[in-house]
Amino acid sequence: MASDVASARDDDRALVLIQRYGRTATAFRALGAGLEHWFLTDARGDRGLVAYYRTPGAMVSAGEPVAAPHEAIAVAEAFVAFAASQRCRASFFATEGILASSPRFRRVMLGEQPVWNPQSWADHVAHHRSLREQLRRAKAKGVTVQRLDAAMMREPMRRARLERLIDRWFAARPMPRMGFLVTVDPFAWLSQRQSFVAMRDGVPVALLSIVPVPARAGWLFEHLLRDPDAPNGTAELLVHHAMLQLAADGVSWVTLGLAPLAGPVSGWLRTARSWSRPLFNFDGLAAFKRKLRPQGWEPIYLAYPRERSSARAMLDGLRAFAGGSLWQFGVHTLIRGPAVLLRALEWMLITWTVLLALAPTFPWFPSGAVQSAWVVFDALLLLGLRALRARTSGARARRTASRWSRALATVVSADAVLTSAQALWWNSGSNRGAPEWAVVLLACLGPWLASVVLWGASRRMNTLQSSPISDRR
């Protein structure tokens, strides 16, 4: 028996194992971009596969090993040994619990995944009044659903429109694109997946891409992407059509995938769920899946060797989602200009404007007129930031938000230049002590950093500026 790390992506070899043993919602993710493959082999061939993301000092598996159920633990233990030989930690993110029966592993609950039986979906809808109302709303707004085969998905014009939809879906989110288990690539492995698109006025307004869970003869609803201006009920209509189609195909098991931090997670994860709401609405995602009334919820875990700490294993998992560096991911999030940061800029600007008004003219300003001008400027800028926030909801409002955010970014960039010029011309000669220079440095850095944030917000809003669907609501 030997282990084998593919020197090149051996996707066909991995696909054979997935089709034979893939029983978890994450199994098909072994074919995802950015993952490396490790195979456990013997004289009979491949016994198992671990698809993993390599972070500094760690190898994070995308789910549990793809192997026969009675061999999954042995494959996992062999992968831990392989990682140790590479001087790396090993962990298994988003497993469905099979590794917990091994004395080598501990587990932390990450959330739950909802499951349905499409065979009972029609009856389910018949007894679900609020869901029927959502479906009615979408249909009343002219939304229709079409099932696309691989050839249709590859058509250049259709693909360009769907990529536009994906860009708008990402632009409406505070955080940048993530990888690992949540990489969005509905055009990969089209021969294996099914695609459903919601159309309005001839334009795609939502996309549902599903991938197989072969050992369960089921499907994972992997990507459900809705344009921010799509009518209410569009996502529900997509799910409804897919469920009916799968029921007609004889499918009896479907999941919408992990609802992170849902269910009875530990206290510190509940705290993280609450604190992270401005950047990722875990409760909202779980609520959407819950309102479809799943027939059951299955717990999902992070599994890791007993000699390791759960905090370190969780950190390794987060780094995998972030693409390796949490610091870089944090910086990329900040420069996107998320709404929570724009609100923070407002509060900081209020404090700064009050301090400017109360500060003595000398040695900070060349004259009282200059001081008053800065106070008035910052007060007007505050009003501009609040007006921008008011323009971030609603299709028509967002169309002016792009121009508004670009104007504010330009003004704040000019503010940064003028502030730096005053610091060099006036304050460099009038301030001598370290505390004074610290204040001047803060005054210069503030508008420069704010301009970076506002230009990032402007780029996002520019993507959302021209709505691909009509304004009829």
TrEMBL record:
One Pfam family it belongs to: LPG_synthase_C
Keyword set includes Membrane: yes
Domain of life: Bacteria
GO BP field: phospholipid homeostasis
An example Gene Ontology molecular-function term: aminoacyltransferase activity
Keywords: Cell membrane, Membrane, Transmembrane, Transmembrane helix
Family matches, as InterPro entries: Acyl_CoA_acyltransferase (IPR016181), LPG_synthase_C (IPR024320), PG_lysyltransferase (IPR051211)
Membrane topology field: Multi-pass membrane protein
Ranges for domain Phosphatidylglycerol lysyltransferase C-terminal: 17-304
Segments passing through the bilayer: 371-388, 408-425, 437-457
Primary residence: membrane
SUPFAM superfamilies, sorted: Acyl-CoA N-acyltransferases (Nat) (SSF55729)
Annotated localization: Cell membrane
Gene Ontology CC annotations of this record: plasma membrane
Protein name: DUF2156 domain-containing protein
Organism: Gemmatimonas groenlandica
